[in-house]
Specification:
Length: 373
């Protein structure tokens, strides 16, 4: 939906106000949850969360003004810069949460691996857009995307950051699947993965990552140790009931029973105070956002636009799905934040970059997509 032109200037009237209202609603609700998690204070999370969102929303709106050709031109320069930054992380990055993932910029810590998620989607989509359809079954259609995904994946695994490395592969593989990779490639990869998983578990994962997997398989085996996060998360979600305990009345987060209640487990913090009704409201908001992204992809007249919009939408879906599965004990704890609710600058920047590029595809010639109607 756009405002009617007339009294209101055309650039403002032409903005996708339904989408903007949805994003503002999700981010504002996230600020309320973070305000409560801090015991009724804007510091240290809620105020920064909303300020970052407004800055990144303005950035996304500016990004939407650039034509699709601009993103095609910038794809590999940006991809190359991010590869160099990932190498810089290995050399001079600082450690946080047990991993070396950030570069200190002074005013914030930049996590290049986060930005690599949309960059890989753009790069793989660029390749398949240029690949003649007749060559989709040839080896030439395999090794370049594998290289594009594999190099940053290796660098991120070395940090180590299991969740982000999987997300990088997920976005690229989705684009390759939609571009027409034969199903036998995925069946073969799944078979190889089943063989390599035990090897990777014992020889590639760090001890704390092995503990996360073991805790996922049997969280009750050590409820006060490695299973503590999941146990407290389930308690927080279950104790919220239908309507929740009420705003500022949560106990799990306020009494520090729930670790990382402002980042990885922010949904648990929210569910305790807002209950199932609040959870369904958040899920419905995410549903509207993902539906918008997929509609942009389906209605784009450009193959590149279709692949990019679908890949970036699935990247946002990965954040949502893995975080929700994680806090409910249905997936290992891998440190994936929940968009618009979790505190964190790099992850919000990544999601808003995805949204800004999808808005660009919707806005310019080669894409005819509606909002939510």
């Amino acid at each position: 939906m756009s405002m009617r032109p007339g009294i209101i200037p055309a650039p403002i009237a032409g903005l996708p106000w339904r989408l903007i209202l949805l994003l503002v609603s999700l981010a504002f609700f996230g600020s309320l949850v973070l305000y409560s998690a801090a015991g009724g204070s804007l510091e240290p999370w809620a105020g920064k969360h909303m300020a970052r969102f407004l800055i990144f929303l303005a950035m996304a709106i500016v990004m939407s003004r650039f034509p699709l050709s601009f993103w095609k031109t910038m794809t590999f320069p940006v991809y190359g810069i991010l590869l160099l930054l990932l190498v810089a992380v290995e050399i001079r990055g600082f450690v946080g949460g047990g991993s070396q993932r950030w570069i200190n910029l002074g005013f914030m810590g930049l996590q290049p691996s986060e930005l690599m998620k949309p960059a890989v989607v753009l790069a793989v989509a660029w390749f398949f857009d240029r690949l003649p359809p007749s060559r989709i079954f040839s080896f030439d259609a395999v090794w370049p995307p594998v290289l594009i995904m594999g190099v940053p994946w290796i660098l991120v695994v070395l940090q180590p950051d299991l969740g982000t490395s999987i997300a990088i592969l997920f976005g690229g593989v989705v684009v390759a699947f939609l571009a027409g990779w034969p199903l036998r490639y995925f069946i073969g990869a799944a078979g190889a993965l089943m063989v390599l998983v035990p090897v990777g578990y014992f020889f590639l994962l760090e001890p704390y990552q092995q503990n996360r997997v073991a805790t996922f398989l049997d969280p009750e085996s050590d409820p006060l140790g490695t299973g503590y996060h999941i146990s407290q998360s389930k308690i927080a979600i279950g104790s919220g009931g239908l309507f929740g305990k009420g705003f500022l009345d949560g106990t799990q987060s306020h009494l520090d029973y729930l670790p990382e209640g402002h980042t990885d487990f922010v949904f648990s913090t929210m569910a305790e105070e807002w209950g199932m009704v609040g959870g369904i409201g958040v899920l419905f908001g995410f549903f509207l956002l993902l539906r918008w992204g997929l509609r942009v992809a389906m209605k784009s007249n450009s193959r590149y636009g279709q692949l990019v919009a679908a890949g970036l939408t699935c990247t946002i879906f990965f954040y949502i799905a893995v975080n929700l599965l994680m806090v409910m004990g249905l997936a290992p704890v891998v440190g994936i934040p929940l968009p618009f609710l979790s505190h964190g600058g790099s992850s919000m920047l990544t999601v808003m970059i995805c949204i800004g590029i999808i808005m660009s595809i919707e806005r310019h010639p080669g894409s005819r997509a509606g909002s939510f109607g």
